[in-house]
Amino acid sequence: MLTAVKNQIKVALLSTKYGLMREMTNKVTFIMDVTFMILNNASFIIQWIILYSLKDDIGGYTFKQVLLLWGIAASTYGFAHFSFKKAFSISDTINNGKLDSYLVQPKNVLISCITSDIQVSAIGDILYGYIMLLIYGITIQNFILFSLLSISGGLIVVSIAVILGSLSFWIGKSDSIADTGNDLMVKFATYPDGIFKGITKILLFTLIPVGITTYMPVWIMTEFNITYMSIVLASSAFFIFTAFSIFNRGLKRYSSSNLMISKI
Amino acid sequence: MAVIEAKGLKKEFKVKVKEKGIKGSLKSILRPKYKIVKAVNGIDFNVEEGEIIAFIGPNGAGKSTTIKMLTGILYPSSGEMKVLDIDPTKNRKKLAYKIGTVFGQKEQLWMHLTPYDNFKFFSAIYDIPEKEAEERIENFIKVFELEKFVNTPVRNLSLGQRIRAEIVASLIHEPKVLFLDEPTIGLDPIVKDNIRKLIKKMNKELNTTILLTSHDVSDIEKLCKRVIIINNGEIVLDDSMQNLKYNYLNKKILELRLKDKINFEKEEGIDVIKEKGTNLKLELDTRIKSISDVLKLIDPENIIDINISNTPLEEIISDIYKEERK
Would you say residue B28 lies in a domain? Predict the structure, then answer.
């Protein structure tokens, strides 16, 4: 069991390495992709600088906490899209019969599929996240905590993408549902949770669990709380388990295809 | 010992039926209609260890669906199957270590990597220790003569070189059974011949059992001793190549070049296929008329040249497909 996990991780890391090698063949594009993503994220901070020049507290957050919120949101998103890019197009993979090559390999189909490609610009998101942490105030403890929370949040984001994309096994094309779900996760992640009330807030901690991927991590980073930490880690495990269960159940309905396919 | 066993294997697909035009599209949203397509309809066959078997049929006959079930890609609707005594639906991963697959229409290699790096990646997928992997790769490079292009990125290889690399990548874990789905599709005759040699070599040197699908009759003729023909999801013929030729080669083609044009009367057992000036092409059924019967009908002085040949295997197979359709 342990050897199998080790081998699966080895293959996933090799995929990432080969993906990076491919992207680095064009040095200029590679550097531009990463740099422009950092600049793109940074441009949003300007609106917050303006808002905080008018008010000291927005939705219960100080300016530094907003920076931390952006940092966590960016690195969570970055980790998910860099390591598991294919999770966000899994509906297309299922519909066009592109799972065949993973099904004939002696590895877990879902992991092999979603780790088979990388998104270079997501490196910019990860770097931006750590720059925000640096501005917020970096220590060894909060560096570890930040990294752990970005990974657990990223795994939830990936799991949701897999769950929504796997609906394709039953309803045909589910890419628009998956895209909407993934967009909602991003859009709500960059605002202080204090501005949301009532039913919206409930949704943000359940159906669109931005509360668990971003808000709780900010609370934990501001003041460590073991209960919140346990909720984040348990939720992460729950979403991963649900994603695997739904995908594996759907796999029995997979119908392949005879499209000409190439692996780029 | 049978390495592949299929018993009553069926695969049905539920397909949405849509009427023409926008009206039809609207109707299909409000009241969708479905039909069941029987892609594979209860097939039985066994493949013995070390065989190279042709699994052929027209497009949509159920060949690829059968291979996909045997390799664990698709779940069968019903029936039983075992490959190397393993049920692909229950133990896909265990089976994957022992089988190899090449789909001529689907690339498995990373395009920006060299074949060598691809082989290393596949070695990791099959958990082959680094040192052993390197030894195997070196051996394959020598045996299958890949020296010239093993360090060139796949995207810069010719189609023939790429397919060779694809086949070798599928052999890296030394599979006992290899499924080749149209491996020679789109290749020129010389490259096709190279691929055939490679297939023969791995069957001979590694005793790999090979199930091959192809629309190219030469592949089948040159490689396989046994042929299974599938049509409309059912096996219509499962016989040795020798028997296939023997039973279906009652027909002979007679090509005649004559001095003077003759009016050939149509007779039972003789068909005039082509008549152009003094050239005549006849097909005769030797069960009804012998060659000497035909020659008696023509003045020997009038014959300049004569050529007698068997009906091409391609025609035999296509006749079997057509008979089934009737």
Answer: no
The residue from B192, B219, B246 where one domain ends is: B246
Q: What is the pLDDT of residue B251?
A: 78
Count Cβ atoms below 10 Å from residue A144 Cβ, excluding itself.
10
Q: Report residue B105's pLDDT band, with 50, 70 and 90 as the boundaries.
A: low
Residues on chain A touching B127 (C-beta within 8 angstroms): 3, 7, 106
Domain that residue A73 falls in: 8-251
Q: Which two tokens stand for residue B19?
A: 């009427």
Give ∠ CA B238-B241-B247 in degrees, rounded to 5.
80
B241 and B260 co-located in one domain: no
**In B, which residues are within 8 Å of A256 by CB distance?**
68, 73-74
Using alpha carbons, select from B285, B288, B281 the residue that is nearest to residue B264.
B281
Asked if residue B137 is part of any domain, the answer here is yes
With an 8 Å Cβ cutoff, is B105 touching chain A?
A: yes
- What is the maximum alpha-carbon separation in chain B? 77
Report if residue B16 sits inside a domain: no
Residue B249 contacts A, CB cutoff 8 Å: no
- Clarify whether residues B107 and B82 are in a common domain: yes
Contact A36, A124 (CB under 8 A): yes
| Average pLDDT in chain B | 86
In a domain, A264, yes or no: no
Shortest CA distance to B236 belongs to which of B122, B147, B321?
A: B321
- For A101, the closest of B64, B106, B117 (CB atoms) is B106
